[in-house]
Amino acid sequence: MKKMVLAPVILLLINLQLLSCKQQSEPIKETSSTVESVQLENAVTYAEGFNITSYKDYTILDITKAFPGSDKVYSYALLNDSNNTQLADSLKNSNRIDQTLITPIQSIIVTSTTHIPSLETLGVAQTLVGFPGLDYISSPLSRKRIDQNLIKEVGYNESLNTELVIELSPDVVVSFGVEGENKTLNTLQNAKIPVIYNGDWVETHPLGKAEWIKFFGALYNKAHEADSIFKRIERNYLSTKEKAKKIVDKPTVLSGAMYKDVWYVPNGESWQAKIIDDAGGNYLWSQTAGTGSITMSVEAVLDEGQDAAFWIAPAQYTSYSKLLSDNKVYGEFDSFKNKRIYTFAKQKGIKGGVLYYELAPNRPDLVLEDLVSILHPEQMPKSSIFFTPLDE
Amino acid sequence: MSKSTYTYCFIGLTLVLLLSFFLNLSLGSVHIPINEIFEGFTGGELSKKSWEYILLDYRLPKAITAVIAGAGLAVAGLLMQTLFRNPLAGPFVLGISSGASLGVALYILGGTAIGISSIYISGKWGLILASSVGSASVLLIVLSVASRVRDTMALLIIGLMVGSITSAVVSVLSYFSKAEELQRFIFWSFGSLGDLSWRGVYILTGCFVIGIFLSILSLKSLNTLLLGDMYAKTLGLKFSRTRLTIIISTSLLAGSITAFAGPIAFIGLAVPHLIRQVIPTANHVILLPAVMIGGAILMLLCDTLAQVPYSQYTLPINAISALLGAPVVIWLLVRKKKVLF
């Protein structure tokens, strides 16, 4: 009997050995910066996932929430003087720093379309050299650069092709953090290509997502520009929110759609739910905890949402006829009968990428204007940058 | 077949292996000229720094992983087919891959579905650990059953049943998971040979060597086993010990490969049949090295195709191995009109 457990145990032991190897890190040599932390005016206010601390000769970018439930802080040192080798070495040897980068970045690969508007607004779109899944990109400026072959395809379906990335050798790869291991990213790190995490998708405050422009501002030594761009978005958002706040009569709002026989609706603490709330809508599931989606049976949704006044964002659907042909139950909703369903799925880039996925996280002010103009047309002139009525 | 014919067969197989290995190294998404590749392997300077890295630190570990995965799974498949005297058996009949799937499913999907957080074992080795723990647990169950069950066929059925249970649990977990988690899990289940660090390659090699060593120890018994359990016993074979050695060897091979490269299907089932068609023998002293070389060749060729040379696409290795291998097996069987077993 004893022998029987040998093989699995050997495997286990080897793995445990690995883990322990991993945890033996080098001795701590903290950077000896006696300079007080200088709080620039771009201190992060809404976003919970990152912090920027500026020192005299360098900036520390801390990513505190690379993915939901992440308990590790990823720290990146941004050095704006490549000649200061002494500082660079002490930062590299510091235990706190995961990665040292020389700024401004000259060439970059990003992995989410939500990163692209930030690059464009900061005027550094020309540094983007590769992207996995080019067809997802909608913005005309970047599409033009793709046509000129200035942005290379580096993978498919958001998974990076290791060889193509190494061939391009960008200054940095910005990845959206995913829980656990990513073999490709480990390989890139070994190939001396810095990979840094961007957790914009984890943010739950509408303005928190938009604030990640400061993350890119730090990479390009454009902290001030990033700050003033964000301030403008913030002003717009808050003034629209104020307008909507005064409205007493808040229509009920339903959201999501079915996949197979499960209805996915945004949770009450999610970004989508908050924006509906800020737009003066009474979102049916605003009381639910959590940030992702909730899975619900169609019965439960019908029970609660049949008489909802509006239906915002029915997943990928763009027409009433498609809704009805997929499932007759959709026709039972008042919002369907009264033709009050609005979708973001119709606004697409030239290659079929959905504009909302790319631009909405960066421009919550525009999303909010759209929604207020739908829910309270008397308050706002018609705005349909993202949301348009369903086709017949 | 005479001794010299076998020798020629092995020389031929070895040459094809070397050729496949070189082909695998020279083709990929990025085009690296042949003379540069020679330069790289003779210690010269390549004209681009990135090429050097791609060649020596990405493609080379990948090719070595392919050789080990192909050879290891083929041997594991052969051992299982002989142990169960069943041409349909493969390296995963004892539930190794379903156990690994369960471990990985709990690791990736568990957080959403049942609130287990995988953060405690996150990082580089989390997936590998989850996969190993999963397959080890299922194996422990199968092993403890094996010590009680005298009949080898019953063991086969028990392995299949355990597989059904784990896949049912995985279905339930999948049902309640987020899209991106599902995508990660599905991608893991496609298998992948690339992006192993050198340390990973060393560990895999270590497990492989031990597994192969154990199977070499049982060579004689394997030949006897083909005659049937009862007959083997009358010939004085220590049956339960032999069976245990074979199971441990298989689990080390298939378990470690699954941990590092995901559940790679088909190779383990098909290669022994391919080799038996090429070298018609029941002698494991010849079969074992032949299936090792054959498995390595098939895996290297599959990986070369899966890289879709000169394009940004890569295809899942599991799909390619079956697409490429299955028609060959069918064609051979139709031509020979029977299974040589």
Strand tally of chain A, please?
Answer: 19
Number of strands of chain B: 0
Integer average pLDDT of chain A: 85
**Termini Cα gap of chain A:** 70 Å
Oligomer: heterodimer
Largest sheet of chain A: 5 strands, parallel
Could you tell me the radius of gyration of chain B in angstroms?
21 Å
**What structural class should be given to the helix and strand makeup of chain A?**
alpha/beta
Low-confidence stretches of chain A: 1-39
Helices and strands of chain B, in N-to-C order? HHHHHHHHHHHHHH
Which geometry of chain B do the CA atoms define?
Answer: globular
Helix share bin of chain B: over 70%
- Show the largest interface: A-B, 45 and 63 residues
What report would you give on this structure?
The complex is a heterodimer of chains A (392) and B (341). With 392 residues, chain A is α/β, with parallel strands linked by helices. Chain A has helices at residues 6-23, 85-93, 116-121, 140-147, 162-168, 183-190, 206-210, 213-219, 223-245, 271-278, 298-305, 320-326, 334-337, 355-359, 364-375; strands spanning 50-54, 58-63, 74-79, 99-102, 108-110, 128-131, 152-153, 155-156, 159-160, 172-176, 195-198, 252-255, 257-259, 262-266, 282-283, 293-297, 310-312, 341-343, 388-389. In chain A, the strands form five sheets. Chain A has a five-stranded parallel sheet. The longest helix of chain A has 23 residues, at 223-245. The radius of gyration of chain A is 24 Å and the shape is globular. Residues 1-39 of chain A have low confidence and may be disordered. With 341 residues, chain B is mainly alpha-helical. Chain B has 14 helices and no strands. Chain B has helices at residues 3-26, 34-41, 49-83, 96-113, 126-148, 152-175, 179-190, 198-217, 219-225, 229-234, 239-261, 267-278, 284-306, 317-336. In chain B, helix 1 (3-26) packs parallel to helix 13, helix 3 (49-83) runs parallel beside helix 8 (198-217) and helix 3 crosses helix 12. The two termini of chain B are 16 Å apart. The model of chain B is unreliable at 117-121 (pLDDT under 50). Chains A and B meet through helix 1, strand 8, helix 5 and helix 6 of A and helix 3, helix 4, helix 5, helix 7 and helix 8 of B.
